[in-house]
Amino acid sequence: MTIHATLLRRNIPHRPSPGPIGDHVDRGKAPNPAGPRGANDSPSFATGLLDAPAAKQESARSAMTDAAIEVVELCKAYEGRPVVDHLSLHVAPGECFGLLGPNGAGKTTTLRMLLGLVTPDAGNIRLGGLPVPRLAPEARRRVGVVPQFDNLDPDFTVRENLAVFGRYFGLSRADMRERVPALLAFARLESKADARVGQLSGGMKRRLTLARALINNPDLLILDEPTTGLDPQARHLIWERLKSLMSEGKTILLTTHFMEEAERLCHRLCVIDAGRKIAQGTPPELIAREIGCDVVEVFGDVPHSLLARLAPLAERIETSGETHFCYVRDAAPVVGTLQDQPGVRYLHRRANLEDVFLKLTGREMRDE
């Protein structure tokens, strides 16, 4: 699920080109910091962040003392169907907080309400200490957003994409002369500064999107599945960049479908399903509380007689397709039984976050 769903169309006034850094980026048209539109010409998620008037940045920064994000009993329903159902969250400054859930769990709607792009039916939100939606435009000035899909402007170079976004946040040319080169270095894109977006690999585009979200030096980053579609090398590079931001004290709210990503990056996690919180804690806490044991995976078409022999040796057995998951306190009896069966393939491993997620939300595939 993506935060690129249709928003109310907003008219963004034309602003002057960024000057020397942008290298005449206007090219006869108003820059579109939200990137190219889709086939339905729907305004992108980022558009809603940039049409607010300039805010007093220090007031938002000074408010980031008690909680970066505070959500209390948040509710939203569409056509009578609850999408977010009495959800409460507390994200501390400097924390990487993961919001996990299957498709349709309410993650995207929650993010939209946090940013004041959707009005809640009930509940309270404070973003950087400021009430949302009442002071959402000011709160958003201290937030950087990385949407699930790249919305970079293909008509501009890497440098120009950063510069145009900086101008929409009201950065001066002096500020951008400092910020743009620093962000190019952060994203490891110095050699691609004058390349068009279409010349970049998928990993480069994601790093540019992350760098663009940092143009206003935000206190809080909201990342919607930031490594979706990337190969392992590109994914690990994004993780490295995010860890460097965490070391600087940035607060990160992350949605992801990669459990390894959540386990590596997040201090705490909240699992939601059908709009409700069903579990919360650190990754080790969740694994210990929800699984608390090792896992032996048995692959292939296993005879029912073998499963019957394994059943009393395991805490429980779950089946997904042709894989049987045996949750065990002591793996030796199960492994010994399997070793006596010629041709049976199995894997003994430690429990992980994916086991937690699947236990809490089920193993069946869900549609968007």
Descriptive report:
This protein has 368 residues and is α/β, with parallel strands linked by helices. It folds into 2 domains: 240 residues, P-loop containing nucleotide triphosphate hydrolases (Rossmann fold, 3-Layer(aba) Sandwich); 58 residues, Alpha-Beta Plaits (2-Layer Sandwich), CATH 3.30.70. 31% of the residues lie in helices and 23% in strands. The chain has 13 helices and 14 strands. A 6-stranded mixed sheet has the order 6-7-8-3-9-10, sandwiched between helices. A hairpin with a 2-residue loop joins strand 1 and strand 2. Helix 7 runs parallel beside helix 8 and helix 10 crosses helix 13. The N terminus is likely disordered.
Brief write-up:
It contains 13 helices and 14 strands. It has helices spanning 47-50, 57-62, 107-114, 136-140, 158-168, 173-186, 202-213, 232-247, 259-265, 283-290, 304-310, 332-339, 353-361; strands at 69-78, 81-91, 96-100, 122-127, 130-132, 143-146, 220-224, 251-255, 268-273, 276-281, 294-299, 316-320, 323-328, 345-350. Helix 7 packs parallel to helix 8 (232-247).
Write the layout of secondary structure elements.
Blueprint lengths: L46 H4 L6 H6 L6 E10 L2 E11 L4 E5 L6 H8 L7 E6 L2 E3 L3 H5 L2 E4 L11 H11 L4 H14 L15 H12 L6 E5 L7 H16 L3 E5 L3 H7 L2 E6 L2 E6 L1 H8 L3 E6 L4 H7 L5 E5 L2 E6 L3 H8 L5 E6 L2 H9 L7
Parallel strand pairs: 3-8, 3-9, 6-7, 7-8
Antiparallel strand pairs: 1-2, 1-4, 4-5, 9-10, 11-13, 11-14, 12-13
